[in-house]
Every structure is written in C-alpha cells, then in structure tokens.
Amino acid sequence: MTSFAERKKPISPEWDPWDAWYTRSKEGRYRLTSVEFTVTNLCNLRCEHCAVGEALVEKEGVSLPVEQLIRQLEKVEDLQTLSITGGEPIVNRHVVDNTIRPLLQYAKQRGIYTQLNSNLTLPLSRYEDWIEDIDVLHISYNYRDEADFQRMAFANANHQPSATLTNRLFQRLKDNAIVLSKAGVFISAETFLSPFTAPHLPHMHKEIAEMGCKRHEVHPLYPSDFAKGMKLLSVDEYKAAIENLLNDRDPAIWILFGTLPIYPCSHHQSDQDLWLRLFHEPNITVRQDPDGRNRLNINAFTGDVIVTDFADVPPLGNIKTDSLTTIFDLWLDHPLAKKYHCYCPKAHCTGPNLLVANTYYQDVDFQARKAHISV
C-alpha cells in the first residue's frame, strides 16, 4: 500500500502547499489546511528586523505536552502543512527532542508537508538528527558580509558580542546551508525588503544561489515588534527593487514573492505590468498569504491561537477549550477577514496581508475594487 508520504507531490513553483490559492479556487472558500506552532521564545540572536522580538525571553517557559498539540492536529481533517517557528526552534535541545521531533514524525506519518524556521547559526550536528523529516528549512538572509550580519543580528542585544564570534556565526550559517543543500535539504532563504537591503538584493540573491538554496523568498519588512521603528520602502521603491532583481537573477533559482504589496486591482499601469511579469516569467511565483486564509498560529506554551505570529490581532481562542476548525470558522466571520478576504480568480489574487494593508493601504476598500488584468 502506498503511504501518505509517498503520495506527496514534490514542492515546486507549480505546487506550493502553503499557498492559500489552491483551496480557495477549488472549493470556493477558505479552509484550515495549515497550522503553525511557536515552540520557543528563546533565540541566540537579537535581529533589528525581528517581527516577534518583543516576545523573546532569556529563560524558557513550560510547553504544553506535545500529545495535546497532536490531538488538536488530529481534529483538522484538511491539514496539509505544518510550520514550526520561534524564536530559534533549535536553540533548546529539550524543545527539539520533546516537541519538534514528535511533531515532525507525526506529520511524516500523516503525509503532511513541514517547514521549520531557523537562523542556521548553530553547529551542524544540531540539525542532522531530525532534518530528514523536514520538507522545507526556512532561513533568513539579509546580509552582504560579516559587518552587516554583526550589525543586524545583534542590534537589540544587551551586550554586543565580539567580531570574532559574529564572523564565526555568519560563516557557519553559510557553511551549514551549503552542506545541507548538498545533502538534498530544500532550503528556502528569505530576504526582507527595506531601504537597506533593496539596493543589494541581486548580490544577496547570488549568495543564496551559491549556498545551494532551492528558493529565494522576498517579503516586505513587517513593521512589528523590533522592526516597528525601521524605515520602510514605498510601494514604488518596492517595485523598483523587484524589477532590479528580475533583471539580474539566477534563472535556476525559484523566487517566491510573499505578501506582495502590489495588486492587480491597482489603477497604476506599472503595478499591472509587474503583476503580469511575475506570473509569466519562469521560476517566479507570488504566494497568496496563508495567514488567516488557510493557516492559524498556536502558541505551544499558552495554547492561544492567533492569525499569525506577528500580527496585532488578539488571540482568537485557545486549544485547551476550542477546536482549531471552530476558531478558524469564527475568524472567517471576523470584520478584518471580511474586509481583506477579497478574491479575483481571473487575476489569481486573494487580497492583501493584514500588515501590508495597514502599512500601505489603510484607506483602500479592497472589496470594492476589481482586477484590471487577467493572468
């Protein structure tokens, strides 16, 4: 008999199981197909752009039993993807052994796609005993060199580490990526776009390709937690950065634009032209935002359920008292969901991310707009 795992389609530009588009277009509504766990509030870095930075702690709390987490997953009939985030999930060996590995093994047995978010700066041995159970290893890469890494990765640290230490961590990040990529691990490296990173995006893209990463994700800088005071790109600057990358990219690397702040319902011709280009160039995809459309985040310590791990929407419920599908259905009736869950099938668009909408389109009624183009 073929196992669920053997029936999984390979992840590719033609199949991104985290994308909310598939269920919405096929079934006519959003369904809970993705769950994300925040499994730790510890991290060995204090990055200036960290969108969950204010939740980071120096001493770990007590997590809910993993059996309780898995019982909730068992009730999600349409579950397709499982994501694990933090903090840095790998920094606490107890969390790895007692939460992460059981979750990954459960997902593997059920045939669920998995992703773990890591800064990849820990010794390689910390990854080797569970990495074969992961489908996507998601990392951040926003640096030109060691000096960038030192400035950015410890911008919010109480004590600044030495250049020797930070250089070693940065080199380890790159070395780990190369070794794991050669071993067949699907590494997806994310770059956030800000006034600092945008001019250097093609250079970072080349570094990501040299590390063997299979995918380069490009997202806006989310103005949340540590990043609240950072300067943001305008939409026009964002478009220019994307065009610059598209004109100077490695065609063998899949580029995924997530939470894109550009939409086919825009009246600006440049927005429409860029949208069409992104949908017609090979190895380029635009991911329709999973948060709140097919995914919920669970805090593994409190059981609180939220739309995303870095939004300001209060908890929607708690797994100690509520089922995830009930919470998701309640969210779909929430005023914010009704405001932003627009859908344009001809343009392949499901509307804006909450943070992007609040940052760039506060006065726009997306429900009253229609796409001006078809893909």
Automatic annotation (TrEMBL):
It comes from Seinonella peptonophila. GO terms for molecular function: 4 iron, 4 sulfur cluster binding; catalytic activity; metal ion binding. Gene3D superfamilies: Aldolase class I (3.20.20.70). The keyword Metal-binding applies. InterPro entries: Aldolase_TIM (IPR013785), rSAM (IPR007197), rSAM_sf (IPR058240), rSAM_YfkAB (IPR031004), YfkB (IPR014866). Residues 27-256 form the Radical SAM core domain. Keywords: 4Fe-4S, Iron, Iron-sulfur, Metal-binding, S-adenosyl-L-methionine. This is Radical SAM/CxCxxxxC motif protein YfkAB. The keyword Cytoplasm does not apply.
